[in-house]
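User: quick one, sequence for these tokens?
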């Protein structure tokens, strides 16, 4: 589903889904991997299509101080419109907004339907930004970059799953670019087991899929190098695990298992699903102490203080894996 006015320039749109419980006001946000806009942003446009009536959708911005408000007003643009119809949203950035800007998120909320238990959807396509780069310092601002992304949490792949990564090119140079892409992978402490090369060309955004076939289980390292026609040489590297699928345990087997791992769930980046996929049955979380639970509880009993137990509990319950999720002790 894409806007017909794009004339075939797009073959896929992105859909955002918000699930509302019907128990009052709720908001949902989707954050981009990197929404930083170099220079002085003047205009943002995109196509938007809400699928249901009565829900609010917004494109949120942040200034260089990380705040999403300026002079007491929200830094945002409305993405609303008639349900089921594509609409081109063109937003001119106020001249007094602090620069540089960052596209912070797409946010939905249910202000007018707080008692309705329902799902709301928004489709977006062809996001474009017009920005003035005349005053930037090229030594401090990246106008050409690459990102290496994995479909699996903490880069943990199991036997039987495709092992692959997405390499994303992002250029603000405003001109066609060509170059050569090369990648190699090796098991830690060993020699490379694959070494590939490929030519590429793009203007602003581009992606390449890197598919791998690890010859053995273990921890591996992927290194990607891009030599661009500008003379830039960009490099990214990451480690990933390729493991046999863990067993599906019965309750009795879980109780008898001696394997566990000590963590602190209040630390950022704790990945329960990745832990379960590596085969751990038990988690001992040092965040769950009486002293810290008492501090976090608050006078209203919401446990809204650090380390934010409701969020930790929700993340653990949402853990989905071929094997059973780890058990907290």
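Assistant:
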């Amino acid at each position: 589903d894409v806007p017909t006015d794009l004339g075939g320039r797009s073959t896929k749109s992105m859909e955002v889904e918000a699930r509302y419980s019907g128990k009052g006001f709720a908001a949902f946000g989707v954050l981009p991997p990197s929404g930083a806009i170099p220079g002085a942003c003047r205009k943002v446009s995109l196509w938007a299509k809400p699928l249901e009536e009565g829900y609010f959708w917004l494109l949120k911005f942040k200034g260089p101080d990380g705040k999403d408000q300026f002079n007491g007003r929200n830094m945002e643009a409305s993405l609303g419109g008639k349900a089921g119809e594509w609409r081109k949203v063109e937003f001119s950035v106020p001249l007094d907004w602090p620069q540089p800007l960052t596209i912070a998120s797409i946010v939905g909320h249910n202000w007018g339907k707080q008692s309705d238990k329902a799902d709301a959807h928004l489709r977006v396509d062809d996001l474009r930004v017009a920005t003035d780069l005349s005053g930037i310092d090229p030594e401090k601002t990246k106008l050409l970059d690459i990102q290496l992304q994995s479909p699996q949490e903490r880069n943990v792949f199991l036997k039987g799953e495709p092992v692959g990564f997405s390499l994303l090119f992002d250029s603000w140079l405003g001109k066609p670019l060509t170059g050569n892409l090369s990648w190699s992978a090796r098991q830690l402490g060993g020699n490379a087991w694959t070494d590939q090369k490929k030519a590429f060309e793009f203007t602003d955004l581009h992606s390449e899929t890197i598919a791998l076939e690890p010859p053995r289980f273990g921890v591996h390292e992927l290194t990607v190098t891009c030599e661009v026609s500008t003379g830039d040489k960009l490099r990214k590297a990451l480690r990933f695990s390729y493991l046999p699928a863990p067993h599906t345990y019965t309750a009795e087997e879980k109780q008898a298992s001696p394997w566990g791992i000590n963590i602190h769930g209040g630390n950022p980046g704790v990945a329960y699903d990745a832990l379960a996929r590596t085969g751990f049955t038990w988690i001992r979380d040092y965040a769950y102490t009486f002293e810290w639970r008492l501090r976090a509880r608050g006078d209203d009993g919401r446990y809204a203080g650090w380390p934010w137990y409701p969020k930790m509990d929700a993340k653990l319950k949402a853990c989905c894996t071929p094997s059973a999720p780890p058990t907290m002790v």
